[in-house]
Amino acid sequence: LGNVFSALISWLSVRASGGDMLLRIEDLDTQRCRPEYTDQLLDDLRYLGLDYDEGEGVGGENGPYRQSLRTSFYEDVLCHLEEQGVIYPCYCSRDELHAASAPHASDGRVIYGGTCRGLSTEARAAKTRPPAYRVIAEDRDAVFTDGLYGLQRMNTKAEWGDFVVRRSDGMFVYQLAVTADDAAMGVTQVVRGRDLLTSVAPQLQLYRLYGVRPPTFYHIPLLVSSDGRRLSKRDRDLDLGVLRERFPSAEPLIGHLLFLAGLLPKAEPLSAREAVEVFSWDKMRRTDITVDGPLR
């Protein structure tokens, strides 16, 4: 349900402002992301009435629109960063990172202290473990205005430390892939859950390194269970497959979500197209939304 909420608000923001909607399949982890999942996602979007103007299934001049097919592009981006002298190989294992007396972010993420940053050429040559690659974090405040939460200020080095852009198994990570794709595809607005708000700091640094203007960001409240957990696959009664059985039409579901978001005074069936007329960022609630039990 949280994914539906994020997709719906993103789509409404685009349609209300006369923009173009882009559908990109972020399937970097090919072990977990299967073609049948993409097929189901596309079918769910059709059920919800959320169309799009560019991307997977409809094409466009900026494809391919599956990240699993964009590896050579990410390799070029990594080379560009290497030429700027802002990345270095890191040989630390996951266990070493978590065993280190390094600070942790509130979400448990290790803030990397730069252990491998100063390794000599000889020391690197002696390593047998394949390296990850990290960007040297800027010791400066990333200042930006979030469309919903207002002025934000966070220090990239303090919040993240030197951050990974490619893992030791060769997989490119979220931070590099989404920023490089946004830059290449001309993305001007990003709408996503507030749990990704701190990701803006390293992403702004990457946009500067690419030499492009960053998009505007709108981070939205999370849907949480009564105990404060973000809704997940454990909440089976709020899985979209279950909801589609309960609601053959998406209109009651969309209306309920808009009510929870503060966009409607009461829950009433509404199509996605009709919802464009009531959408306003000024009316969006900013606190997380508690969903108690199955929707009726």
Protein described:
By secondary structure, the protein is an alpha/beta fold. The chain is built from eleven helices and eleven strands. The strands form five sheets. Strands 3-4-7 form a three-stranded antiparallel sheet. The chain has a two-stranded parallel sheet with strand order 1-2. Strands 5-6 form a two-stranded antiparallel ribbon. β1 (22-23), α2 and β2 (54-55) form a beta-alpha-beta unit. α7 crosses α8 (200-210). The model has no long low-confidence stretch (mean pLDDT 92).
| Parts with pLDDT < 50 across at least 5 consecutive residues | none
Cα-atom Rg, whole angstroms? 21 Å
Number of strands: 11
Order of helices and strands: HEHEHEHHEEEHEHEHEEHHHE
Strand content: 5-15%
Task: Quickly describe the structure.
The chain has 296 residues and is of the alpha/beta class. It is built from eleven helices and eleven strands.
Based on the model shown, name its key terms.
296 residues; alpha/beta; three-stranded antiparallel beta sheet; two-stranded parallel ribbon; 11 helices; 11 strands; 35% helix; 14% strand; globular
Chain-wise SSE layout:
Elements (H helix, E strand, L loop, with lengths): L1 H16 L4 E2 L11 H14 L5 E2 L15 H13 L3 E4 L3 H6 L21 H5 L6 E4 L5 E6 L3 E6 H5 L2 E4 L7 H12 L3 E5 L6 H11 L5 E5 L2 E2 L15 H7 L4 H10 L11 H4 L13 E2 L6
Helix pairs in contact: 7-8
